[in-house]
Request: fold
Amino acid sequence: MQSKNEQISTLIELNDELENYFRNTIIPQLFVDAQLILRKFTPPAMRQFNLKNEHTGQPLVNVKENFRFPTIIDNIQQVIDSSEILEKEIQTTDLRWYQMNILPYFVQKGKKTNGVIITFIDITARIKDLKEQEKLIAEHELLLDTIAHDIKNPITSLGLTIELLKKLPEKGMAKFPVLLSNVENSLIKMKDIISDLVQSRWQDKRYQAHEEMLDLQNILEDVRLTVAPQLNESHGVLKFEIGASEITFARRKLRSVFYNLVSNGLKYSAPGRTPQIIIKSFLEKDYMVITVSDNGIGIDKQQQLSIFDKYHRVSNEIEGNGVGLYLVKQILETAGGKITVNSKLGEGSVFSVFLKLNEASV
Reply:
């Protein structure tokens, strides 16, 4: 059994180890006790959150504005009361984004949570990359789909003109056959160019989307990071209730599907109502079904018939180009799936995504 001096020496060593850890870690961390007093923080936290040594020992409420996250005190209290880990994305005063993990500090003696340890992982670059990826994918998909769709009419018109020219009398038009041949060759070349451009969507390795076994939860986490700025600005809530998770699909395409649906749910939120989006998944016959529910402005019955048409807009007052849902429908139908909508004006919408299961997913 240790003597009193030995116990004091052991405590000093443990405290020195803790102080050494806090001084040298490169991760911003805070230790807040059960009374919401800031007890310790690491040097990176001083730089990222504009903390000073004199903040130690102060109520966290005195420095919460440094986080640009008004509910941080409530979140800490929630972890203290429940003893459950909480994860959220927050933005700091230097406009960077962090994955915030609030972990309960559990004391064996008394069996209660005596505070929390808060860690911050910088995800600014990841959010920026995901947003750029979604932008590039949307622009690329729109370009190719627009070419494939809109070029058909002028090509058809040109072909009909050629057929009419062939039927005209050639008397007095010695050069007509040569001109006609040139027009016909131009038409053939135009078709070849368009065909090559559209086929590059599948052949060019830079844009080729390979199917793989995916975890739906990971895809949705990427989407949540991508829309984190909009969620933060609107104080929106995004919840997942995942009953089925494994699916074989192209990663960037599946991410685009849910990015579009979640982004729309936030854009078309109802005035005066906090946006709430709930994503659920379950198996139904040969499909994995994922529903995306929101409490936004809703869609009237007439518009529900055309919202998946290219360039259709639910509201011209909200920024957009009317191709998001069109692309979602094209992606799903190409993969043997489908999408449906059930909505009530003024109450919100439920989009149901049906992903075809293969043998590996069953």
